[in-house]
Design brief:
Layout lengths: L5 H8 L3 E8 L2 E10 L6 E5 L23 E6 L17 H15 L6 E6 L1 H13 L5 E5 L5 H12 L5 H12 L6 H16 L9 H8 L3 H8 L26 E6 L6 H10 L3 E6 L6 H4 L1 H17 L6
Parallel strand pairs: 3-4, 3-5, 5-6, 6-7, 7-8
Antiparallel strand pairs: 1-2, 2-4
Helix pairs in contact: 2-3, 5-6
Length: 319
């Protein structure tokens, strides 16, 4: 019997990359994954944000996970840059993304003995939904920079974040949004100067890390806008009424919620989320924003790796 199974050999021969076939209501497609490392006890699948961004901004993990001996998987969801990008609006549906994720799990042979699911931003929504349906396959769960309620997120943006902005800039952004003038260069300029560098990534925009810029460049608006909506000051689209706050108590696997002081997401809501899950814990990044994995990086990865190592050491997960 070979030491490596066939999928392992495929990974090794392709630098860890696999195109995984998935079935959808509109036929078969393929999604891109890449394995880094080799540890049968710890396998972390990374869910990127957006939806419709790409895994690329998560490349910060390359500076931390290999040294900790963690095996991890990058994954571009259907519609994202390295995966198939069908122009089929009916596929951009939360329940379908959950089933896609389950097919990816099966293809990668992840199970409750080793599978830790990580989701950042939109990836956190997907991770919560997956855990609520399939937590018997999980050893642990990480929800990074994502509230459990879009209505609560929108209320936080309206009552806390927007009043902190320059009133003139906010009025102009809202006027451009009302006119649907999202392609106007002025719109993005205002958002970068008055919102992004305060709450998305707290660095001068011309110093943003290349993987972040690359991921934003590759955003697919045909996925992002139907799900998230066109506005950058809140969420709309199909996710407008999404709220799983009251369901968190049914997630019984070990769970880590990561928040940050300057995030677009209310850190107190995230702290509350951790308290609602029977085995939940909260990790705060006091210098960070929505991309605390960059602007409070050392603390971010310290908490994340500590949680993963603790969960991996458990002989049997609780379900």
């Amino acid at each position: 019997m070979s030491y490596f199974d066939s999928s392992d050999r495929c990974d090794r021969l392709s630098g860890g990359v696999r195109m995984i076939p998935i079935q959808t209501p509109r036929g078969p497609f393929r999604v891109w994954t890449k394995r880094v490392g080799n540890n049968p006890r710890i396998k972390v699948l990374l869910l990127h944000g957006g939806p419709g961004v790409s895994h690329e901004y998560l490349e910060a993990f390359d500076s931390y996970f290999p040294g900790a001996g963690i095996e991890y998987y990058y994954y571009d969801q259907l519609g994202s840059h390295y995966s198939d990008q069908p122009d089929l609006p009916e596929l951009w549906d939360l329940a379908r993304f959950v089933e896609e994720l389950e097919q990816v799990r099966l293809a990668l042979s992840l199970d409750r003995s080793n599978f830790i699911l990580f989701g950042q931003s939109w990836g956190g929504i997907l991770a919560i939904e997956y855990a609520l349906k399939y937590q018997e396959h999980l050893k642990g769960l990480v929800i990074s920079n994502m509230m459990a309620s879009i209505p609560a997120y929108n209320a936080y943006a309206e009552s806390i974040l927007m009043p902190q902005m320059d009133p003139g800039a906010l009025a102009e952004i809202k006027a451009l949004e009302a006119a649907g003038d999202y392609e106007n260069p002025r719109f993005m300029d205002l958002l970068i100067r008055h919102h992004y560098v305060q709450h998305v990534l707290r660095m001068p925009h011309d110093e943003w890390p290349e993987p972040v810029l690359r991921a934003f460049k590759h955003l697919n608006p045909k996925v992002y806008i139907p799900m998230q909506g066109p506005s950058e000051l809140g969420a709309a689209g199909k996710l407008l009424h999404w709220d799983r706050t009251q369901d968190l108590a049914s997630i019984t696997v070990p769970a880590l919620v990561i928040g940050a002081r300057y995030d677009t997401m209310d850190p107190e809501h995230l702290r509350m989320m951790a308290g609602m899950m029977p085995r939940g814990a909260y990790w705060d990044c006091p210098e960070g924003s929505h991309l605390a994995l960059y602007d409070d990086q050392v603390r971010y990865f310290s908490g994340l790796i500590g949680f993963i190592e603790k969960v991996a050491a458990e002989k049997e997960p609780s379900v």
